[in-house]
Amino acid sequence: MSFIDLSYDHLFKSRKTLPWWPWIGRQFSVSPVKTMVVGESIYEWDSQSGDFARRYAQTTGLRITHENHALQFDRDSPYVRNIERAIFFTLKPKDEQKLNLWTSVVYHNLVLQALPSNDHRPSKRHYRDGWNEVLDLCDLLRVEQCLVYGLEAAKLEALKLVAAERNLTCVIRRVGTKVGRSHPRLGTVGNGNAQLKFLFVRHPSSFFSWRKWNPVLRDNLSLTFFA
Q1: Does residue 189 contact residue 132 with C-beta atoms inside 8 Å?
Q2: Can you give the pTM of this predicted structure?
Q3: CA-closest candidate to residue 10, choices 136, 110, 129, 140
Q4: Mapping DSSP to helix (H, G, I), strand (E, B) and coil, where does residue 199 land?
Q5: For the chain, domain boundaries
Q6: Mean pLDDT per 10-residue interval, the chain, length 227 residues
Q7: CATH entry 3.40.470 includes domain 28-226
């Protein structure tokens, strides 16, 4: 059984700025609130065998990686497992819950160029190019809300800059109270007729308290349809 919906792929074929097509869950088209989960980067691995280069030379590269991590339910991949815990508020979400989550959303990475290692940080240009692509994809797919991994100031400022270049309003503000040393942000981008919501949270790959982040997600995004 396929987990992914390929019916949108014709929208991506002409996009030369989109090296890896987003993961689109098979239930996304009927989801009551169209949601995109925005990851950050991929890092080069296994450079000697050439497997990384071969995978990411294809438009399906990100999809393969996401399915390997998110849809293999017993795989210990913090960036998917921790966000599942925060959404469902349990240490061990059921496989059916995981399946429903990842087949109901779009998953896309903001940075569209592989970084040499996790010691390297994206540049301002990476973020600007990434936000341009995210906004285009949200328009194409009619996304209504985005859950964004990472609270870096450069990432937030790049979204504001890209929105301004497009003559869109962009407001990003702190919401709730701090979670550890991180303060969640809620952003809206729009043109007056439609508003796209962005919730920025700490990247769930490490030092992520799913218990403390659950209220932030619950209070600022529509999540009930994942249950």
Answers
A1: no
A2: 0.94
A3: 140
A4: strand
A5: 28-226
A6: 92 94 97 96 71 87 94 94 97 96 97 77 92 97 97 96 97 95 96 89 93 96 86
A7: yes
